[in-house]
Amino acid sequence: MAKILQIETATAICSVALSVNGETISFKEEQGQNLHAANLTLFIDEVIKTAGLNYSELDAIAVSKGPGSYTGLRIGVSTAKGLCYALDKPLIAIETLEMMAAGFLSENPDYTGLICPMIDARRMEVYTTVFDPLLNVLLPTEAKIIDETSFNDFLTQQSITFLGDGAAKCAEVLTHPNARFDAANFNSASYMSKLASQAFDKGNFEDVAYFEPFYLKDFVVTQSKKQQVQG
């Protein structure tokens, strides 16, 4: 039975879970700005102790690989890689949007429509993709600027549930009758459990030395107006 530590830091939610054979047995999470650097290692330690395990008993480390927050992903992935090196354990990378869709389906097992997870990328832009109920990808992951015509090719055919921290701001724009919105939190490491277990069973491991998060967009440093004036 694979014991997998799971880390999700792609958004403002700092989330850690531990699963055994695809079932979550312990998790800890909190939402807020700039939590990851201070809390991630504390959450990991608490989750492992709550499960009654030692670090040496882990079989793998799984991490949400993105897309999402540049800083959050960097912290999560660097922590996961550090644990893999220290414990000599394999690294599993889970696509963040797939994890969100899997979480929605686990809470709605009879759902038959499409799922569109969205991660906020500021203004009216989101990181997004579209899945069917079997988690087949129908639209490649992209940074998409949302307007009233977005996803119309899908919406004219069947219902889509939009979810994630990027979905709420789109509700006033995506007004098609087949558009549904779910405000629940699906950026939880607990929703990684089955995906991580499947990856472990298939031996789908990353090269710890060379693995990098899926940022999707380059990180851009901008100056504040005060800095621009001083410059």
Automatic annotation (TrEMBL):
For this record, an example GO cellular component is:
cytosol
Q: Pfam family example for this protein?
A: TsaD
Q: What is this protein called?
A: tRNA (Adenosine(37)-N6)-threonylcarbamoyltransferase complex dimerization subunit type 1 TsaB
The record's listing under SUPFAM superfamilies reads: Actin-like ATPase domain (SSF53067)
GO process terms (BP):
tRNA threonylcarbamoyladenosine modification
Q: Which InterPro entries match?
A: ATPase_NBD (IPR043129), Gcp-like_dom (IPR000905), T6A_TsaB (IPR022496)
Keywords assigned: Transferase
Ranges where the Gcp-like domain occurs: 33-133
Give the originating organism: Pedobacter roseus
CDD domains, per database record: ASKHA_NBD_TsaB
* UniProt lineage: Bacteria, Pseudomonadati, Bacteroidota, Sphingobacteriia, Sphingobacteriales
Q: Which GO terms describe its molecular function?
A: transferase activity
